[in-house]
Structure formats: C-alpha cells, structure tokens
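Hi F.,

I've been meaning to write this up properly since the lab meeting, where we talked about keeping a consistent format for the predictions we share between groups. The idea is simple: the sequence comes first, exactly as it goes in, then the structure tokens exactly as they come out, then a line or two of notes. No screenshots and no reformatting. I'm using this chain as the first example so we have something concrete to point to.
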Amino acid sequence: MSPTGGTATLGRKELSVLGALLFGAFLLRMIPLFVAPGIYHPDEVFQVIEQSHRLVYGHGIVPWEFVKGIRSWLLPGFFAGVIAAVRPLSSNPAVYLAAIGMVCALLSLIAPAYAFVWGHRRFGLTGGVLAGLVPAVWIDTVYFATHPLTGVIAAHLVLGGLLLAEIGAGRRTYAVAAGAVLALAFLIRFHLTPAIGVAVLWLCWRDRRLLLPLALGAVPVVLLGGLLDVLTWTYPWQSIWLNFVVNAVNGVSERFGATPPYYLLGCLVGLWSGSSVVLAGLALVGARRHPLPLVLAAVVFLSFQPFAHRECRFIYPAIEFGLVSAGLGLAQLAVWAQRLQPALRTRLQRMAIPIGAAAAFALLSLTTAAAPFYQEKVLRKGVAVVRASPFVRAQPGLCGVGLQVPFWKTGGYTYFHVTVPIFEVPQPFQLRKFAPAFNVLLFQRGAKIDPGLGYSTLRCFDEMCVARRPGGCVEMHQP
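Output, unedited:
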C-alpha cells in the first residue's frame, strides 16, 4: 500500500472489491431498518412519506407546510412511486416502509463509493478500501441511511454529482449527469446551496470545460422543479423561495426553538464524545490530499450559523462529507505507519496495519453506538411508536384512534395505515370531548386517563401505551 497519484479509473479487480464493500455496507444498513426501526424526526414522516401515503392511499395528515405550499412534492412523489410499486405485493406498512428504507440505503452507498474512488486514486486499492470503510460503517451513516430526510438524501446526491464528474474524467456525458444530480440535490434541500456552489466552483476550477455541460445538466432539472411547483402549488419554485420567506424572513422557524451559535458543534461533541476528536483528526489528515469534502463540511456547518433555529439533523451533510475526508485520513495514516515499519516484508505483514486500522475504526463506531447517550438521542427515537402502530391497527372493531400525544410524535397514517379517523387529544378536556369518536387510544406511559371514559390499558411499548374502551364510535369532526 503506497500513494499512487493515479486516476480514478477502476479495473475489474477494483470494481469487484468496491462491490463487496458496498454490499457489506448495504447489509449493515439493514440492521437498524429491520431490527429496531424508528423515527428520528417527524419531518421524515409528515414532510415526505405521509404525503406519499396520501397520494397512493388517499388519506394522510396534512402538516402546515403543505397547507401553505412551502414544501416540494418531489420526494413525496418519488416515494409514492415506491409505495405504489410494492402495493401489489402487500399493503402492510412494513413492506412499503422496508422498500423505502432499502431505496434510501442504496442511495447512501454513494458516500463510501466516492471515498473509495479517491482513496484508490491516492493510496491504491487497500487505501480505497480503508477510505470507503469509514462512511460505510460509521454509526451515523448506517442509521440515517434508511431515513428519508431531505438533508440526508441531498447529501448523498451532492457526492453523487461529484463522483460522476470524477469518474467521467472530463467526458461530456458524465458532466451533464453530474450537473443534473447536483441540481436535484438543490431542489430537494435548497439549504445546501452554498455547498453545492462550492462543489461546482471546485469542479470548474479544476477543468473550465466542465462549466457548460454542468449547466446543460442542471438547467433542465431546475426548470422541471419549477414546473412541478406550478402544477402542485401556484408559482415556479414556490417551495424554495416561499419556504425561505416564511422561515428565514418572517421568522416562523424560530417558533420551533432558537439555539446558540455553538449548538451545532455541541451536537457532534455531545453525541460522539471522545470519538469526535478522532474523527476530526482523521478528517484534517485526509484533507491534505483531497480538501473538498472537509471544505464542504465546513460550508454546511457555517451556512446554518446566521439563523437562530438550528437542529442537529441540519448538519448531517457536514457529517457525511467529513466522514469521507476522515476515510482518506485513515488511509493516509496506514501509509505512514507502513513507512515507519520497513521490516514488514511479506504481504501478510504489510496487511496487518490496514486490517488493524479497519478493525479499530469499526470498534470506534460500535462503541459510539453503544453509548447510552447516543442510544437515547438517536437509536431509540421513535422505536416505541413504530412498535405500537401495528398493535393499534390490529385491534378488532377499530373505528377511531385517539392520540393523547401530539400527532408529530407518531407515525401518522403511514404507520397506522388505517382508514378510520385519527383525533389528536393531548389535553384532558379534549379527550373527554372526543372520546366517543374513537375506541383505541395511544398515550404516554404515566399519563392519567379519566377512568369514567372506560379505557383499559392493553399493552405498553416502552414509553408508548395503547388503551381501548368497549363499544363503537360516534361520528365527530375535530377542528
């Protein structure tokens, strides 16, 4: 293993190794999807797949963003196609949710592929494997890969556009495709505009001939995005400019919470603890040979600083870009370690260092995931309501569902997959008023329910419990 300085061209052997790496990464992503599926943030449900469910099955909760018309139908429309494709197999939510998760997981493989290509270019085949291993096995990329959050999907597409430009080696067709993919990332998550702009500048600075084909790929996609908003809302690109006006100019986003400037940095340090130091060091080392991923990570991080409303999920693209740089850093450290051990003569002896580096990083990811704080803040989020939803749906004689929790803490119609009314009754007076309209109630463990309403607890799933009362339902309408 030594620096090669070669091109990104991959032969049959390299492609086989890359395929094995990506297959292993895909299988790893299936573990959280099937073993303990959860909902990290309400947006992945109500801004995306709940609207997909509404398109296919005709019913779903409509959040305020889709009332005002500040969200694009691009992703909901795409995932509606996924749901419709598997509908003939089964209407069980587990089937279409698994299909959506698997599609997202396949898209997430772009990150390790990009890291592999650059690692191979700089350090040979073993370096490519080490570089690709980092975004392939790190717990954040494994967990979030199957969650249809706009920032997650757009991050993959940004790397996908860069990868197309890299493997195309200046070929016009690849550059056009790269421009189209980068434009798609912009339409899905316009908040990444600064990072996408830097990526385009990087490509054109390296080869000015790419500017025209990138534009030829991007312009039609952006125009189609504007046409989609005209057809689904009113004005071209309404989901972009009106979203910015409502949230950034009018300050609506601040109603959901304002955080100090250091909050986003605290997200990383708080979740990763000591691992954050290791990853930061690896990323800095990796940036020596290929600075773009770390530059993009910094741009994403800084682009959210001017706004008071910040959430940890906003910087997922920065995490993914940074992990690509960290992968290159791991490969570089392995090269340096081999140089310090000239006595390693046999192939087996030389491979001990990269194998040890890979094992150490995999262990770091595993210990980070096993930390109680990470379990609480990430891995266990939304697991209880996902487990409770099929139990609610399976209740015989179900004629209405009551939620004594805010609707956004549930999986909506996407997970309940019922045709009966759902009533949000978080306050006791609301529960008493609308109790005749539903006979099954989802509530937070420990909540007090008026015994006069006749509800009996059937089962609890961690913090979420399901209760039922005898009898049917009276038709009522909740304002």
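Notes:
The mean pLDDT is 94.
The chain is about 65% helix and 5% strand.

If this format works for you, I'll send the rest the same way.

G.
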